[in-house]
Structure formats: structure tokens, C-alpha cells
Design a protein that fits this description.
Organism (chain A): Thermococcus litoralis (strain ATCC 51850 / DSM 5473 / JCM 8560 / NS-C)
Number of helices of chain B: 12
CATH architecture of chain A: 3-Layer(aba) Sandwich
Order of helices and strands of chain A: HEHEHEHHEEEHEHEHHEEHH
Pfam families (chain A): TPP_enzyme_C (PF02775)
Strand content of chain A: 5-15%
Shape of chain B: globular
CATH class of chain A: Alpha Beta
Oligomer: heterodimer
Shape of chain A: globular
Radius of gyration of chain A: 19 Å
CATH topology of the largest domain in chain B: Rossmann fold
Structural class of chain B: alpha/beta
Number of strands of chain B: 16
Keywords (chain A): Oxidoreductase, Pyruvate
GO molecular function (chain A): oxidoreductase activity; thiamine pyrophosphate binding
Strand content of chain B: 15-25%
Number of domains of chain B: 2
Subunit structure (chain A): Heterotetramer of one alpha, one beta, one delta and one gamma chain.
Strand order of the largest sheet of chain A: 2-1-3-4-8-7-9-10
CATH superfamily of the largest domain in chain B: Thiamin diphosphate (ThDP)-binding fold, Pyr/PP domains
């Protein structure tokens, strides 16, 4: 009887025993991303280990590399907060000269990517380095507590966007780095969510397989930052997709006219209301006393879909 | 046979990089060092240099890419100046802390504000505590030689620290001088190939670099940088000896000129040393017992050499193109530390001059000598003196 190959490799590069919180979304990202990478490397170069990781400062870097321990079973380097893409550029150039086959994986959170690291990211993409940049998006600076980033969604509570008499919480729309990355007309850009691990896995594999730079932005809920119980991480991430709040898409070569969508309802009508997503999280609790803020959030999501070329209905 | 070519300081730096055969160069253009990446681009375009040249979007990314490349185990070079170096500041500490022997050429330039593209040493002086070794060139030949020397010292297993080589903006970067270009084979023999045992990103031997150091380990990690810098004193001298054997040119931590019977010794760095030698000759003709000294290596600070030099002088006048606000010149402060517990020490005076490209004239130097002479005669003078300052426009 033929044995089916498991859909996700059993190889591990993210060792157990790291210091992340129970139910940590980004930790799931690290494990899946490296597994997908190794499978892509095996298919492309015949060597599952043919990659190295350049990590921006952030919670995943901190919990995984506390000297003298390490969670990484792959060559791994951390330099600073804003330069993972630039460091990856250097590693890639060195590998080229050493004749080493493989690809570099750069990893940053939303702070290290959408904010302080955006310039280095742009430079790396524009120069066409053979690097996959993975942005794990937990929608705030979680390493230093819970401060807003430009990737924090409208209405969310953080310690620097607290709701109050004159504030509804974060008052700016979320910045979508995937679209900025796609504007560089690089081979591959995708969004993903740990709420759909197979889709994320497939996209990471594809990102690792293309020649040249690729960018993946993955939603990765943060248990303390989002005020959710540890067992709800994946459920929340799933609801983000099902309510239309987190579009899953792929853009190749910056071709905005041919965006591939995943799990998009045929009629454009999302069945679950975003309130289902918001209600699970302490960071949006205050919005339920401010229905106009929830409406504003819906308007912003519709606008995002419109930019992506889709008219949607949100219940 | 080594060939002689007339070239600018920036070209000399680019030639040094070519001869050292780095596998990765990452740089961003900045005045006055722009010609370094330009020249390297030409070398690469013509196939004369077999390096990956990453044309980064900022100096911060230049040094970050160098850290990535060096951590992956290859010889790495960059060049910058002034604001560009300041933009690298954060990563300079990291490069040293990670023990990566990157070499960087710097066209020493003033820092804003006001914005100013001309020469002083405030850029490199401001980075003296990063853990990078610092060399200062007097002329274009030294710019070339010291970059080769810097690679050799930086990559020595007793050291493994990055190094910067400064040469004065415009005075050297844009001035043509005859420079001897050593033979490639001799440079190859001198430098050898860089094969690190501590820094590589090899899937066959996965290691973690740049981990988090808790209080239980951080201090020891910093101590190893201190220790490496202490080791560098010995290694630099060894490399100076070897360089002389291979290339015939002699370098010293501190090079002295007519100091043996001098009462007043003027100590400086960089291109000003050339001016001082000429000035010393002039004053000697007038019968003034004066000598000059040039500090080639500023980090590690040549403590023993300063002590030996100080024994010869009654007045040690330090001439420097930098200022540490609230205390005085940085070289003066460091020199004072070297002499603090010496039983006999000269009167020490500091002269801040030439900031932002202001010419240092013989008139200025006369003023330095006048003040030094007064001090020698027991008159009370200021410890910190701004020379050539246009008080009338204040």
C-alpha cells in the first residue's frame, strides 16, 4: 500500500523549549515557516537544510535565542531591530560568492517590518536579493509590552493607543506592508494566517521556491497583546479570514490585475460578522460601546478589498 | 614589481580593497568618500575585482549587509564618512560584539549641524567606544597600506575585531599623490584567505549568532571585546613588522619626528602630521627645541608609546580636530589617562583646531608654540585652546 507523504514535513527547525507564551501565534509561524522552507529547499536543491535565517529584534528573536540556548536548528543570525532585510542581503551575497546553494529567510515582526525596518526591506526587495522576507504580524510591538505599530488595526487598544474619553483606541487604518512589497514588482507576495496553516505552508513553500525576493505577511495572534485565552489563538486567526477582515491573496510580479484570492466567498458576501472576531479579543472590548467605530473598521476593510479589486459585503 | 600611480586618497582606499579581495562590499555614496564605491564599481564592472557589490539604500544597511556577509564567513569591506558613519553607529557596536573583522575606509569629515562636508575627525572620534580599531593615515600611501594592515590585524584570531581607517576629507580623499601599489601576489601572501572558525552561516554546521545575553553573560561578552582590543596592541606591532618585511614601509603606533631633544612635542593624527613635520623643521632652524609625533593607531590607544613620548617632553601639546563637549579634545582626554599615574609628566595642553575643514596654518601653529612656551616658562595658560577661532564673528 502506498504511504502518502505527510502534507507537512516532520522535520523540525524550531526546537521545543523556547520561551514563548502558551498559545503563541508567532511561535506557530516560526515552526511552520521553517518546515515549509526546508521542503522547498529539498525540492529545489535536494538539500532540506539549504537555508539560513536573519532575524530582526522582536519577541520571536528574544524567546528563541537566549544565550547559551538556542531554539534554532538552522544557521541563524540576529543583528538589530530594523535591519533583518539588509543583513539577509549580506548573507545572500556571501553565499553567492561561496557558491553555496540555498535561500535566505528574513524574519521580522510588524514593528521591525512595517515601521523601523521598512527602508531596509524596500532596499532588499528592490535589489532583487534571493531572500524571503516573512513578516509575522501580531499587530503591535509585543516585545516591549503592547504598543501600537503602523500595523495595529483601527480601534485596537494598545498601551500607546488606549481608549479614553477622547480616544477610540488606535485611530489610524492598518498599513498593509504586503501591498507596499508588491509595489516593488517582486516575483511573489502573499498574505497568510495561522488560521489556515496549509495555505500558509503552501505560500511559504512557493515563496522559497521562486528565484528572487518574496514577501509573506502572516497574521499571528498574540495571546497577551490581544487579550485572548491561549487556546483561542488559531480560532481568532481563522475568524479573521472568515469575517473578511484578513484577505488571503497572492500577487506575482506586482501584477495587481491578477491577484489570486484564497477562501474568498464566490458572491463576495462574508457570512460571519467581524463582531465575532472582535468579541473574542480584549483589545476590542471597548468598541462594543461605540458601534460607529465598528462601522468605521468595516468601511476600512471594504476599502482594502476595493483596492484589491473586490467589492465585498460584510454583515 | 610594485607600480607607482598618482591617485586620490579615495582611489588608494579602493585599490587597497581590490588588493585585499573581499568577497562582499556594501556601500552607499557619501561625500567625501563617494569615489571609493565608484572606483570599486568600476573594478567590479571591468572584472578586475571579484566581489559581490551590494549597492545599499543607506549606510545603516551598508554596515548591516557587511555584518551579514562577515557572519556568513567572508572578507567584507565598506567605506563611508561623517553622517554616514553616524547612521551606522548602532551596528558598529554589534559588529564588534559579534567579533566580525569588517574593514571600513573613512574620509574623515565633520558632523552636522551646521552641515559641513570638510575635514575633521569628529565622525570617527565619536565611534571610539564601539569596539572598532582605529587607524589614521597621514597620506594616500598610508591610506592604502593601513587598510591592508587593518584586514590582517582584524582577522587575526587573537583579535577578531572590525577596523576603521580614517583619511582626511579632501586633504587626502581628493588630493592626488604618488602611491605605490603593491604586487597582488605579495598582498595575497601577506593577507591569505580569510577562513573564520567562529562566524559562518553554514547549513551543514548550524550555529546561532547574535543571541540575547542576559545579565549573567553580557558582561563577560563585553570583556572579551576588551581583551581582544588589548591583544590587538601586540598583533598590530607584529603586523607592522611583517608589513615592513613584505612591502618595505615602516609603521609605528606613534611615529616620532625630531623628538629626542625636544622640549615641546606636538602630537597629532592624520594629514596634519605632514604639516607638523615641515613646521618643526622651520622652528628648528630658529633654534626652538620642538618635535612632532603622529598617532597612527588611536584604538587600541597606544598607552605605552604615549608614556615613552611624554618622558621626552616638557610640554606635550595635543593638536586635534575634534571636541568632546564638556571636557575638551578626546585625544587629550585619552592621553591624560595614559599619563595619570606617571611620576613625572609633561605639562599637557590641548589645541582644538581645523574643525569643519578650516585650514591649519603655520600662523596657527606659531600660536600653539607661543602658548606652549609660556607654559614651559611657568606662566599659567588655558588647558583647552581653540586655535584659529574667529572670535570677531561670535
Amino acid at each position: 500500500m502506498a504511504v502518502r507523504k505527510p502534507p507537512i514535513t516532520t522535520r523540525e527547525y524550531w526546537a521545543p523549549g523556547h520561551a514563548a507564551c502558551a498559545g503563541c501565534g508567532p511561535a506557530i509561524v516560526m515552526r511552520l515557516a521553517t518546515k515549509a522552507f526546508s521542503e522547498a529547499m529539498e525540492e529545489k536543491y535536494g538539500d532540506p537544510n539549504a537555508f539560513a535565517i536573519a532575524h530582526a529584534t522582536g519577541c520571536m528573536e528574544v524567546v528563541s535565542g537566549v544565550f547559551p540556548y538556542t531554539s534554532w536548528k538552522a544557521p541563524w543570525i540576529h543583528v538589530a531591530f530594523e535591519n533583518a532585510a539588509a543583513v539577509a542581503s549580506g548573507v545572500e551575497a556571501a553565499w553567492k560568492k561561496l557558491g553555496r546553494k540555498g535561500k535566505i529567510l528574513a524574519i521580522g515582526g510588524d514593528g521591525g517590518t512595517a515601521d523601523i525596518g521598512l527602508q531596509a526591506l524596500s532596499g532588499m526587495l528592490e535589489r532583487r536579493h534571493n531572500v524571503v522576507y516573512l513578516m509575522y504580524d501580531n499587530e503591535a510591538y509585543m516585545n516591549t509590552g503592547i504598543q501600537r505599530s503602523s500595523s495595529t488595526p483601527y480601534g485596537a487598544w494598545t498601551t500607546t493607543s488606549p481608549p479614553g474619553k477622547y480616544s477610540i483606541g488606535e485611530d489610524k487604518p492598518k498599513k498593509w506592508v504586503a501591498l507596499i512589497a508588491a509595489a516593488h514588482q517582486i516575483p511573489y507576495v502573499a498574505t497568510a494566517s495561522i488560521g489556515d496553516p496549509y495555505d500558509f505552508y503552501r505560500k511559504m513553500k512557493k515563496a522559497a521556491s521562486v528565484d528572487g525576493p518574496a514577501f509573506v505577511q502572516v497574521l499571528a495572534p498574540c495571546v497577551p497583546g490581544w487579550r485572548i485565552p491561549p487556546e483561542k489563538t488559531v480560532e481568532v486567526a481563522k475568524l479573521a479570514i472568515e469575517t473578511g477582515l484578513w484577505p488571503l491573496f497572492e500577487i506575482e510580479n506586482g501584477d495587481f490585475h491578477n491577484i489570486k484570492f484564497q477562501r474568498f466567498p464566490k458572491d463576495g458576501k462574508f457570512k460571519k460578522p467581524i463582531e465575532d472576531y472582535l468579541r473574542l479579543q480584549g483589545r476590542f472590548k471597548h468598541l462594543f460601546k461605540r458601534p460607529e467605530a465598528i462601522q468605521e473598521l468595516k468601511n476600512q476593510i471594504k476599502e482594502l478589498w476595493r483596492i484589491l479589486g473586490k467589492e465585498v459585503e460584510l454583515p | 614589481m610594485p607600480m607607482k600611480k598618482v591617485m586620490k586618497g579615495n582611489e588608494a582606499a579602493a585599490w587597497a580593497a581590490k588588493l585585499a579581495k573581499p568577497k562582499v562590499v556594501a556601500a552607499f555614496p557619501i561625500t567625501p568618500s563617494t569615489l571609493v564605491p565608484e572606483k570599486i564599481s568600476e573594478f567590479v564592472a571591468d572584472g578586475e575585482m571579484d566581489a559581490e557589490f551590494i549597492k545599499v539604500e543607506s549606510e545603516h544597511s551598508a554596515i548591516s549587509a557587511c555584518v551579514g556577509a562577515s557572519a556568513a564567513g567572508v572578507r567584507t569591506f565598506t567605506a563611508t564618512a561623517s553622517q554616514g558613519l553616524a547612521l551606522m553607529h548602532e551596528v558598529l557596536f554589534i559588529a564588534a560584539g559579534m567579533r566580525l573583522p569588517i574593514v571600513m575606509a573613512i574620509g574623515n569629515r565633520a558632523l552636522s549641524a551646521p552641515i559641513n562636508i570638510w575635514n575633521d575627525w569628529q565622525d570617527t572620534i565619536s565611534e571610539r567606544d564601539t569596539g572598532w580599531m582605529q587607524f589614521y593615515a597621514e597620506n594616500n600611501q598610508e591610506a592604502l597600506d593601513l587598510i591592508l594592515i587593518a584586514f590582517k590585524v582584524a582577522e587575526d584570531e587573537r583579535v577578531l575585531l572590525p577596523a576603521m581607517v580614517g583619511f582626511d576629507a579632501f586633504i587626502l580623499t581628493h588630493t592626488v599623490e604618488p602611491v605605490e601599489i603593491p604586487d597582488q601576489e605579495v598582498v595575497d601572501e601577506f593577507l591569505g584567505e580569510y577562513v573564520p572558525k567562529h562566524a559562518y552561516l553554514d547549513p551543514a554546521r548550524p550555529i546561532t549568532q547574535g543571541a540575547l545575553g542576559f545579565p549573567a553573560h553580557y558582561m563577560e561578552a563585553r570583556y572579551t571585546v576588551w581583551e581582544a582590543m588589548e591583544n590587538a596592541r601586540k598583533v598590530i606591532k607584529e603586523v607592522f613588522d611583517e608589513f615592513e618585511k613584505k612591502f618595505g614601509r615602516r609603521y609605528h603606533m606613534i611615529e616620532e619626528y625630531k623628538t629626542d631633544d625636544a622640549e615641546i612635542i606636538l602630537l597629532t593624527m592624520g594629514s596634519l602630521a605632514g604639516t607638523l613635520k615641515e613646521f618643526v623643521d622651520k622652528k628648528r632652524e630658529e633654534g626652538i627645541k620642538i618635535g612632532a609625533a603622529k598617532m597612527t593607531v588611536y584604538r587600541p590607544f597606544p598607552i605605552e608609546e604615549i608614556r615613552a613620548l611624554a618622558k621626552k617632553a616638557k610640554v606635550l601639546a595635543i593638536l586635534e580636530k575634534d571636541i568632546s563637549f564638556g571636557i575638551g579634545g578626546a585625544v587629550f582626554a585619552d592621553t591624560s589617562r595614559a599619563l595619570i599615574n606617571e611620576k613625572e609628566k609633561p605639562i599637557m595642553l590641548d589645541f582644538i583646531l581645523g574643525l569643519g575643514g578650516r585650514d591649519v596654518t603655520f600662523e596657527n601653529l606659531e600660536e600653539v608654540v607661543e602658548i606652549s612656551k609660556k607654559a614651559l616658562e611657568g606662566e599659567k595658560v588655558e588647558e583647552i585652546n581653540w586655535i584659529g577661532l574667529r572670535k570677531e564673528i561670535l
